């Protein structure tokens, strides 16, 4: 990802690999929409077009750096009864503005239009890594638009060893690294002091919150996410992905899709243990709870 960012900086590209080279537009299509909150920004997203709106729309708020294109294998594997929208957050990739937007409340406000469902459609809001806190704020701002919330590899202010190394190094090289990496470092460094409202909101949400985390995550430690789930007073469940690292969207697509289906099907459930899948049914990275 870092090398891709440097390649884009040298060539002036906004996409690290143009999506159209991988998938036809009837599978994954790039679209744009106006940011909420009156900011006047044009935001970019990748979308799985469907002839008729399916019952569920899955909206993904990506981490830092925010590159929707790294979700394309998962999007392409999505069944026809689901729709997925993955955003480039403000300040990254194809989205405006060109400067960093470090305030997570502002980011949440700007991304609200992505939640708009078709008539009769339900929304699963997914926050990945740094995007987990932003997705939580989005759900709090518009609970009428969110039916279920999933926090994938959620980053809640405590970095693992790999993340600490790169953020420390990036902080020393801010004047020399590409824009998207620079903005990612600035965001992560400034996030911890903004988290108190996020944890308060998790404690009073009426819908199910599903935590999905790999047990080999060395960017956002699983122990922190597990503690956040245990402290959450709202209905919640925790799915541990055995062998999964921080980038679950870069693993076998069906593993992550099965986790998201659990978040959809379990709406309204109280804390419960999800039985481990039979070993024979597990792909290279399996589910364990």
Which SSEs are present, and which pair or pack?
Elements: H1 2-11, E1 29-34, E2 42-47, E3 56-61, H2 72-76, E4 82-88, H3 104-111, E5 122-128, H4 131-141, E6 148-152, H5 161-172, H6 179-190, H7 196-202, E7 209-214, H8 222-231, E8 236-242, H9 253-265, E9 286-288
Parallel strand pairs: 3-4, 3-5, 5-6, 6-7, 7-8
Antiparallel strand pairs: 1-2, 2-4, 8-9
Helix pairs in contact: 3-4, 4-7, 5-6
CATH architecture: 3-Layer(aba) Sandwich
Work out the helicity level: 25-40%
What structural class results from the helix and strand content?
alpha/beta
One letter per element, helices H and strands E, the order comes to HEEEHEHEHEHHHEHEHE
If strands are numbered along the chain, what order do they take across the biggest sheet?
Answer: 1-2-4-3-5-6-7-8-9
Largest β sheet strand count, sense and barrel closure: 9 strands, mixed
Q: Residue-averaged pLDDT, rounded?
A: 84
Strand segment count: 9
Number of helices: 9
How many domain regions? Answer: 1
The CATH superfamily appears as Alpha/Beta hydrolase fold, catalytic domain
Q: For the record, give the distance between the C-alpha atoms at the N and C termini, rounded to a whole number.
A: 30 Å
Strand content: 15-25%
Rg calc? 18 Å
Low-pLDDT sequence parts: 2-11, 267-289
**Structural shape:** globular
CATH class: Alpha Beta
CATH topology: Rossmann fold
């Amino acid at each position: 990802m870092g090398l891709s960012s440097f390649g884009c900086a040298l060539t002036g590209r906004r996409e690290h690999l143009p999506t159209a080279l991988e998938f036809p537009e009837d599978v994954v299509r790039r679209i744009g929409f106006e940011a909420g909150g009156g900011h006047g920004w044009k935001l970019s997203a990748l979308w799985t077009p469907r002839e008729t709106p399916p019952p569920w729309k899955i909206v993904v708020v990506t981490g830092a750096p925010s590159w929707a294109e790294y979700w394309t294998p998962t999007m392409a594997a999505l069944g026809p009864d689901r729709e997925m929208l993955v955003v480039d957050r403000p300040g990254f990739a194809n989205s405006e503005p060109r400067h960093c937007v470090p305030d997570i409340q502002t980011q949440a406000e700007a991304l609200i239009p992505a939640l708009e469902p078709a008539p009769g459609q339900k929304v699963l809001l997914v926050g990945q890594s740094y995007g987990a806190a932003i997705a939580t704020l989005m759900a709090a701002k518009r609970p009428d638009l969110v039916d279920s919330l999933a926090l994938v590899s959620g980053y809640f202010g405590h970095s693992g060893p790999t993340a600490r190394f790169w953020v420390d190094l990036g902080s020393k090289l801010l004047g020399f690294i590409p824009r998207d990496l620079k903005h990612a470092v600035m965001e992560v460094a400034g996030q911890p002091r903004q988290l108190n409202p996020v944890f308060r909101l998790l404690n009073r949400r009426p819908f199910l919150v599903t935590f999905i985390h790999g047990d080999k995550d060395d960017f956002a430690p699983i122990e922190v996410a597990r503690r956040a789930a245990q402290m959450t007073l709202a209905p919640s469940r925790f799915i541990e992905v055995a062998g999964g690292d921080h980038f679950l969207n870069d693993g076998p697509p069906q593993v992550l899709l099965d986790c998201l289906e659990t978040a959809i099907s379990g709406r309204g459930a109280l804390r419960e243990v999800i039985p481990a899948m039979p070993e024979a049914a597990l792909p290279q990275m399996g589910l364990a709870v």
